[in-house]
Amino acid sequence: METGLKGRVAIIAGSSQGIGLATAEAFAAEGCHVAMCARNIEKLDAASKKIRSQSKSEVLTRAFDVTDAAAVHGFVEEAANQFGRIDVCVANAGGPPAKGFLEASLDEWRKAIDTNFLSAVYFAREVIPHMRSRRWGRFITLTSISTKQPVPDLVLSNAVRAAVAGLVKSLSNEFGKDGILVNNVGPGYTATDRLKELAKARSSSQGKSQDEIFANWSADSALKRVAEPGEIADVIVWLASERASYVTGQTILVDGGAYKGL
Fold first, then answer.
1. What are the φ and ψ backbone dihedral angles of 167, each rounded to 5 degrees?
2. Which strand ranges, in their side-by-side order, compose the sheet holding 137-142?
């Protein structure tokens, strides 16, 4: 399937591992130049080397915290200067810790807002002017099934991810006239380090083994398994492609049928 992405430039945040890395790999496979960022420089360097070995795409990497607005600004400007344009931005960051409401501190609430909501705001503010100048762009956020169906033990994510969905809808309405599509992808349970951390937390609180926890998650989905990161990345690439040219303001769940609503 022709995606129309060859030669375009994609920024992928949180791309040293998990879904972010799979997304960077998928864009590079389509012929995009990719700009990758994450906090861990060692993992980021290893990820970029892997992509360079698999494709002919140019890769820019920078290590910083996405809660730093000035760092986001510098990264986007560097990517624009190196590649000459910004076409796609995937705003992604590690999820908040697994906590119940009374267990979560106010500092953890502030960090969740900074990491999972304001970081998306920072990236949007930086990339949208570049996209408007060319009257073409794709801004995609990465959240969770929790935007539609709250997940036990994830009150921080349940609350903050919903704010991102509201941002997506607002941006899609405001910038659609400029040729910019804005969408949100909500993964279900996906085989990442983040899921292993959640399994550990639930194992401790419920007195079950981590294998039992994973088996329960698999049973929740219609497909009876958890997702692989590449399956989420494929949907992100589709949303960025010309094949999704009339899709905007949407939250697309990639959850194997775990969401039970209509």
1. -65, -45
2. 59-63, 33-38, 9-13, 88-91, 137-142, 180-187, 251-254
Helix (H) or strand (E) holding 219: helix 210-220
Mapping DSSP to helix (H, G, I), strand (E, B) and coil, where does residue 233 land? helix
State the pTM of this model: 0.95
* Residue pLDDT, tens place only, 119-177: 999 999 999 999 999 999 999 999 999 999 998 889 999 999 999 999 999 999 999 99
Q: 92: how many CB neighbours lie within 10 A of its CB?
A: 27
Lookup: tokens for 102: 């009374």
Amino acid at 141: T
Residues 6+ apart with CB under 8 A from 261: 148, 149
DSSP SS3 for 215: helix
